[in-house]
Amino acid sequence: MKYSEIINELARVGVQDASSEAGVILEELFGATRADILLNRDKDYDSDKIVPIIEERERKIPLQYILGAWYFMGERFEVSPDCLIPRPDTEILVYEALKLVNDGGCVADLCTGSGCIGVSMLKKSEKIASATLLDISNGALEMAKRNASALGVENRCKLVLGDITKSLPDGKYDMIVSNPPYIPSEDIKGLSDEVKNEPMLALDGGRDGLDIVRALIDKAPNSIKKGGHLLIEFGYDQGNAIANIMEEKLTQGAYSSYKIIKDYGGNDRLLLARV
Ligand code: GLN
């Protein structure tokens, strides 16, 4: 099958960004570089390997799950239907968190999923002494463990199975980071078929989407050292609701300051709060 035929087949089965997916498939399956693909457009690639992928894409299985891996912060992370696919906007959380890291710092990544946030922080910063990676899903935690090992940071990781709406992991941290589920339950049915194939546990944030965010904001001050930080990703339209919650927390003295940071698309996306 030629590159152009792969693009046409992907487009036929409803893939939005068919040319970029065709390129990723050729890179992953045949080790082709973008330059190889474009300079040898008539090259014939083994259809037996490509057709099953097109069939799975027709069934709306995300390409990342078919390939079993995706890239985040320039690193390759294994992914499976047990964990959310890492998103580029979540890299903003990592960049902001890395600016605040102190020597010997202890970090907790709550709702770690693939481990993409905590593991890439450990990989990028030698200053971080340890990261506790917590998830409610055994399957996700297994992925986080595999990614920590593959990226050589497993000796600085602690993996914890737990439910943060009940309690946060033991200990006092310099920083808590989280990309929790934050989609309002009602909005789930309107998501794309691909996103609906991601774990509901990783997406559904309850009635207004903020059940887990609120639990985190409530509990985090007891688990963060004085002067330490909480960073939480949230939905594009939740900035005002988060600001209201935080204004009340400031008057109660639970936090000393906070700011809201925008994503690449200019939407409110990230809470950065200081205890
Ligand atoms: N922390 C993981 C990520 O950012 C998983 C988040 C989640 O499961 N809600 O991709």
Task: Determine the structural class based on helices, strands and strand pairing.
Answer: alpha/beta
Q: Measured on Cα atoms, how large is the radius of gyration?
A: 20 Å
Percent helix, as a range, is 40-55%
- DSSP summary: helix tally: 12
> Biggest β-sheet, characterized?
7 strands, mixed
Low-confidence stretches: none
Q: Which helices and strands appear, and what pairs or packs with what?
A:
Blueprint: H1 3-12, H2 18-30, H3 34-39, H4 47-58, H5 63-67, E1 69-72, E2 75-78, H6 90-99, E3 105-110, H7 116-124, E4 128-135, H8 138-150, E5 157-161, E6 173-178, H9 193-196, H10 200-203, H11 211-223, E7 224-233, H12 239-252, E8 257-262, E9 268-274
Parallel strand pairs: 3-4, 3-6, 4-5, 6-7
Antiparallel strand pairs: 1-2, 7-9, 8-9
Helix pairs in contact: 1-2, 6-7
